[in-house]
Amino acid sequence: MTDIKATMDALPGLDHRAPLLQIDDLHVEFRTRDGVAKAVNGASFWLSPGETLAILGESGCGKSVTAQAIMGILESPPGHITAGEIRYRGVDLLKLPEVQRRKVRANRIAMIFQDALSALNPVYTVGFQLAELFRVHRGMSRSDARNRAVDLLDQVKIPGARSRVNDYPHQFSGGMRQRVMIAMALALDPEVLIADEPTTALDVTVQAQIMGLLAELQRQRNMGLILITHDMGVVADVADRISVMYAGRVVEEAPVHDIYARPGHPYTRALLESIPRLDLKGRQLNVIRGLPPALTDIPRGCAFNPRCRYAKDPCRQDPAPPAYAIAPHRTARCHFFREVLGE
Amino acid sequence: MFRYIVRRLLQMILTFFGATFVVFALMFANQDDPIQALVGEKQASDSLRAALTERYHLDEGFLTQYWYYMKGLLTGDLGKSLTGRDISEMLADAWPVTIRLALLAVLIAAAIAVTTGVYAGIRRGGLFDNGTLLMTLLLLAMPIVVLAPLAQLVFAMELRWFPATTTKDATPYELLLPAIVLATTVIATQLRVTRTSVVENLRADYVRTARAKGLAPRRVTWVHVLRNSLIPVITLIGVDLGVLMSGAIVTEEVFNIPGVGFNLARGIRTEDGPLVVGFVSVLVIIFLVVNLAVDLLYAALDPRIRYE
Amino acid sequence: MSDANLITVAEAPDVSGRSRSLAGDAWADLRRNKIFWISAVLVVVILLMAFVPSLFTSADPGACALSNKHKGPSGGAIFGYDFQGCDVFARTIYGTRASIEVGILSTLMAGLLGLIFGLSAGYFGGTTDAVLSRVTDIMLGVPFLLGAVVFSGRLSGSEDDGVWAVTLTLGVLTWTSAARVMRSSVIAVKSQDYVAAGRMLGASPGRLMFRHILPNSMASFIVVLTILLGTNIAAEATLSYLGVGLKGDAVSWGLQIAEAQDYARIAAHPLIWPSVFLAATVLAFIMLGDAIRDAFDPKLR
Ligand SMILES: Nc1ncnc2c1ncn2[C@@H]1O[C@H](COP(=O)(O)OP(=O)(O)OP(=O)(O)O)[C@@H](O)[C@H]1O
Ligand code: SF4
Ligand SMILES: [Mg+2]
Hints:
Number of strands of chain B: 0
Number of helices of chain B: 13
Shape of chain B: globular
Structural class of chain C: mainly alpha
Number of domains of chain B: 2
Order of helices and strands of chain C: HHHHHHHHHHH
Largest sheet of chain B: none
Distance between the termini of chain C: 48 Å
Shape of chain C: elongated
Largest interface: B-C, 57 and 49 residues
CATH superfamily of the largest domain in chain B: MetI-like
Bound molecules: adenosine-5'-triphosphate, iron/sulfur cluster, magnesium ion
Oligomer: heterotrimer
Mean pLDDT of chain C: 76
Low-confidence stretches of chain C: 1-19
């Protein structure tokens, strides 16, 4: 344990008073045969210990790509981070040599994926896949690592952990598999957990259990949690703050209750209006008029302008709207936020 | 697992009888003079005729003939060759060197195909990948009758790196050149399958997870991707064995290695029907047994099948 | 005219339009592929050698003089002479015909058998499929050359040059891959909407197969046959080499190699040239098949 602490303390620029995680003006593009897809175009947000930040947005707006960029697991090529900073406690992860960057993964920042069945390796037991973390990162012996794996399965409340540790992923039910995924992410006590639609593939009842488990583990460990989701109901329940993404940008950021009461961006407003207010729980986002822009050809000015009912001339001209501070702890990228807020 | 094994066993028994029947039928069915089929263009003496008729029960019905043939096969009684030697004994003599040759060839093929295939898969579309693809194309296009004599000519006769021929007690070094030649008959397909499989597996979600776990790229490839990628390669082993058997006939003939293939090639040339049928039948049985073993190995490697 | 007819008629152009655009894309891809052009040119040259050998050499492959035994290149005999004093270049050129003949005929036979078995297995499914799959398994249970040795050995023995014996052997033993490909493409195509729609509207099975299924399964089928053509040519050479293929006076690369090999220490050229031509021919067809497959299925390139 001291080993890893020393390694982490040696990270260049480490500052324990700096924000836990800070993303600044992140740009990611995919250079493919069909052109350059600008998946993330200046995303910015931050995360504090013990806090839950929900990232919302339509399919394809760059949520998963942002998460993968933070983890440093973007597929490259075709993916390239072209600008921006990702700081963990003041350490610019993008400037870190690959070996140190790898240490940050799983040790400090961990991630769980949507589809646990395909995210787990089908040909190894879950015990092997859990123990591997301790063997590789902590240099533990096979049997010690195995014991830790059993502990972890216990912690995520998998019944009969001692025997199930020898089972293969396909032998678990969907919910149990996602618990394994969570155990794997939490194995090395990370400070940041990114959960990319952790419950989308599950039954509604199981969804609630998994979210409950996540919330509980987060509280115990005082972890910062980035929750990427489509489920507005879940957001209202567990999130502290919300970042709404559109076409690779965070278009609005606010404490959860403020945003539900008074959205500051037309896109957020449309998202909220697309679901019946009294029945938020378990609802998926409904489709908003028009289509998200093609990432190879993002509109000039405000990317949302072709679909926006508030749009006026300035919206169609560069530069894109800046992040206006529309209230304490709130920003929105809309020239006409006052109108939207209804002031 | 149990049901899987039982199902495979049943399938194999069916294939076993089918395949031996095909071999038998190819040799004897619809033949005006089965004796002549056995001895080729030679004149069959009356005593030989009588012996062959008794041996293959040629005076009885076709199915009875097949029955006796199967009985002989299963009890290890393969009869005598036209030269009067006991076929089972010839086989016993010939085995060891052929086994060594085949094992060496398999090791060489697997080592090259898997490492090269994995690297080509990782660097998909790069220079190395395209180079390997071109190489496999050339290898695929090299029939064993081209490769074996040319390899012997160049590496044994001209460059003198290896001996041109060997004996029954050949050392691994003496067997190296023929083994490489034999290996090339299967390398190309193995390599291509490995590569494709690696390319597909690299896109799999579990690879992303492995990287998110902070594992080094080497570990991701050789521990996580490799095991998954080998599954389709394993299924190739069964098919490859057939290719190797065919290749061994020519290779052993060219390099004068007195193994199973060499004896078979001689049997073919001298039109020794009993010898050819006996050897071929045994090889077919081995082929089927190995294929069954491969299926079981496949199950061992892929837990999704094991617990079906 | 009934409604059903109307719809079937309306469906047909849609399907052909789709396959045409797929074929069109593939052609555009092929045109830019160097490998395709190299192999196509090679194939044309090889076909010319097979059917008009006199374009390439004026020498008579049968005119041999022992006085020329193992002589090096001279005059028209640019590859020298073999151990019987035959012109190696002339024999190699004339040897093309046997290889190509056997290759094409046996591949056509294998293709026809594969077409029939694969189509029926895929189209009718159920018991037909199960039985045919078992038959395929059994065929695959006998390694190719072993089966060929027994079969071809049995067929030959008569006076002719063995072309038919080898063709029949190869055709009968190599249809399985064609059948498998046919079967799986038929199953894939069958599940597509327009075929299901056609069946619901009462189109006859024969019509369905030929109007809808066959054209859509053709691409991969042709690829398999092109490659099979290459491997069958190699197989013919191997059988001839072993003495169960072409025989007697036949001019064949396999026979040339077998004869020259015994004298390789003394004279290498009679061994090298037929080997080079054989490898180049097999390569040409395999490359062609590869290129066509890539054009139709660029996913894994
Ligand atoms: N490997 C890749 N190659 C090319 N483009 C990619 C790749 N990965 C993602 N993209 C593109 O980046 C864009 C953003 O994808 P991302 O997965 O981040 O969306 P998302 O917001 O997570 O959507 P969802 O809600 O559907 O998960 C998509 O349009 C996608 O096409
Ligand atoms: S900037 Fe203009 S187009 Fe963009 S959201 Fe605001 S009003 Fe709509
Ligand atoms: Mg996503």
